[in-house]
Amino acid sequence: HVLTLPFIARADQAANPVAVKLLQLMASKQSNLCVAADVTSASQLISLAESTGPYVCVFKTHIDIVEDFSPQLIQDLLAVAQKHNFLLMEDRKFSDIGHTVSLQYSKGIHNISSWADLVTVHSVPGEGVITGLKSAVPNLQRGCFIVIEMSSAGNLTTSSYITLSTLSKWLSYECVVTASMEICEKHPDFVAGVVCQSPNIVQNPGLVQLTPGVSLDCLNDGPLGQQYHSPEDIIMSRGADIAVVGRGITQATDPIQAAQEYRAKLWAVYEKRVSS
Ligand code: 5IU
């Protein structure tokens, strides 16, 4: 079963080169922690990468929120990623037609495809969104994660309230999951994994499950709609391979200590899962 298979064994079964690298890196670095670097200045972004870098497998950015962005920031980020051996994921959530996303990916001031090992993408537009992204990077080793379920309250990607009266909602949810997984299977060279909240969506051991909404201290962020779960819940019950932690680390009094604590707790649950 995919959940009890060690990352290193799954690396052999991954078709996307970034997924292979990621699974190997997670095993060697003993980290299934992705930090969500939702910060708005270049200096904050670099200092967070420097301080949490030794403990993470993926450093996830929203590059469009950086107010003093410059190409130098990318050079600095790449240098820190190499120094501390982590991958860069731009959480762009591409969601337009293929032609447009190919331009958003490889043009404009952020030139995402030139530096981000991984990007996130919504499956809503259909397969063209993947072929569009792929067409922009024919010669680069790049990968994407397809968003299937979100962590936010009231999101339209949940099947959790199945009753007869909501049967049609449940059926359409099942269709979204099935169709999204079909897109994954059709593009194994480019799809590294999926973003979701439930186990059993990922059946292919070569695909990685990334799951946001993790906190040791909070259950939610009030009216903003985020919903948090414990490391135990996210790795064991929800099937996450990689857990995404943002404010639990970035807003901690001591982000280094928080990153160490999240890494240790998340890795311990993964070890328990593979030995069960
Ligand atoms: N993120 C989510 N939920 C999702 C998806 C992405 O929270 O369903 I898809 C992103 C947003 C943010 C990070 O960058 O993950 C979580 O940050 P906090 O741990 O601060 O809530």
UniProtKB/TrEMBL annotation:
Native organism: Coptotermes formosanus (Formosan subterranean termite)
UniProt keywords, alphabetically: Decarboxylase, Glycosyltransferase, Lyase, Multifunctional enzyme, Pyrimidine biosynthesis, Transferase
All residue ranges annotated as the Orotidine 5'-phosphate decarboxylase domain in the record: 32-262
Positions of the catalytic residues: 91 (for ompdecase activity), 93 (for ompdecase activity), 96 (for ompdecase activity)
Residues holding substrate: 38, 60, 151, 226, 246-247
Residues of the full protein shown: 222 to 497 of 563
GO biological process: 'de novo' pyrimidine nucleobase biosynthetic process; 'de novo' UMP biosynthetic process
GO MF: orotate phosphoribosyltransferase activity; orotidine-5'-phosphate decarboxylase activity
Name of the molecule in the record: Uridine 5'-monophosphate synthase
Superkingdom, taxonomy of origin: Eukaryota
Keyword Transferase tagged: yes
Family the entry assigns: In the N-terminal section; belongs to the purine/pyrimidine phosphoribosyltransferase family.
